[in-house]
Amino acid sequence: MKYELPKLNYNYNALEPVIDEQTMKIHHTKHHQGYIDKTNSVLEKYDELADKKLEDIFQSLDSFNLDKSDRQFLINNGGGVLNHNLYFQIMGPNKDVDEVLQSQIEEGWGDVESFKQKFVEAAKAHFGSGWAWLVRNSDNRLEIYTTSNQDSPYLKGDTPLIGMDLWEHAYYLNYQNRKAEYYENWWKVVKII
Ligand code: MN3
Fold it and tell me: How far, in Å, is the centroid of ligand 1 from the Cα of 27?
């Protein structure tokens, strides 16, 4: 299936001052679009992938007979698609709280603030580009961890619920080297908790 850039249901300046308009615009129209175009270019080479969702492909990647370099290209760029689809979707200028998720977070970490603190700690401990995640694992438990580059939790059979982009392109225009400030502030624009 051919992927298209999902439309945002808010404006590029709607997340200011937490994330500035220019960062949002470049992130969505250049980075996210780039991952989509590259993903389509590899998917169209394989008939066996044509009618499958990326999530499903990633959960059983080894069952497909992909050329080695295409496999890594798909991990990098298809991961970029899945990760950014989630990232842009869970942000917004207004809260739209997922009550079920919120109560599961409270069960796991006591309260939402403690959860956010653990999540930010994981992000701070991560070296280099990547993502910080809240996932639901195959045992149906919530878990925080980070991945490098554009590696998607679907590769491990986990379902990502919250993803924070740790790449410099997500914050650098506004925060420069103050990435911890972005990690803390980001929660103000996460709408689902
Ligand atoms: Mn990004």
Answer: 6
| Cβ < 5 A residues, ion ligand 1 | 165, 167
Q: Return the number of other C-beta atoms located less than 10 Å from residue 24's C-beta.
A: 22
> What spacing in Å lies between the alpha carbon of 63 and ligand 1's midpoint?
28
Query: For the whole model, what pTM was predicted?
Result: 0.97
Residue 29 CA, ligand 1 centroid: distance in Å: 11
Residues 164/130, Cβ–Cβ less than 8 Å: no
Instruction: Give the pLDDT confidence of 133-171 residue by residue, as tens digits.
Output: 999 999 999 999 999 999 999 999 999 999 999 999 999
Q: What token pair was written down for 138?
A: 């195959």
